[in-house]
Amino acid sequence: MRCFCCSNLPFSACCEPFLKGHATPQTAAQLMRSRFSAYASKQFDYVLATYTKVRQPELSVNELTANAANATWFALEVGETHNVPLTAQAEGLTEDIMQINEGATDTVDFTAYYFENINLYQLHETSNFIVEDGKWCYHDGILHDDCGKVKYGRNLPCLCGSGKKFKQCCATKAR
């Protein structure tokens, strides 16, 4: 199965190891992709766990689930990022070395597409990420003016990047 984040990689080799806790995203862009995959697969415990510590108390899995109840997330486009990697992820590193990235920040510009009540919407955001406890965490984001309901031609290439026409691919998820 192709990954939900539209990376063209298999889910098992892309976001699934992050969602299952077998790996840690090494860049903010990887975390962004894995959070999208979590929304698409309704794994809101992962979404909550990847917020910064200061933001987590404001949210709950039930709230995240309720807010996304009618949404079917299906395509992601990742734009600009500085691609700041974690430098202290190897096993056996001392705690002093693990602090190298602590407080590092990055931004990721993305557009996510979803269906809600048969309508197509886009969420365009520039997200702010910070390293806490040696892991990238989502803090907040700035929504762009082009968020909301969009029209997209049924005969255009699908937004997910499959190469199929939209009507023969993800548009079927709206039904």
What can you see in these coordinates?
The protein is of the alpha+beta class and 175 residues long. The protein has a single domain, classed as Nuclear Transport Factor 2, Chain: A, CATH 3.10.450.50. It has five helices and five strands. Strands 1, 2, 3, 4 and 5 form a five-stranded antiparallel sheet that branches. It is globular and about 45 Å long. The two termini are 21 Å apart.
Class of secondary structure makeup: alpha+beta
Poorly predicted segments = 93-98
The residue-averaged pLDDT reads: 91
- Number of helical regions: 5
Strand content: 25-35%
CATH topology name: Nuclear Transport Factor 2, Chain: A
Q: Structurally, how many domains make up the residues?
A: 1
H/E order of the elements?
Answer: HHHHEHEEEE
Give me the CATH architecture, please. Answer: Roll
Give the overall form.
globular
Terminal CA distance reads 21 Å
The percent of residues in helical segments reads 10-25%
Largest sheet: 5 strands, antiparallel
Number of beta strands: 5
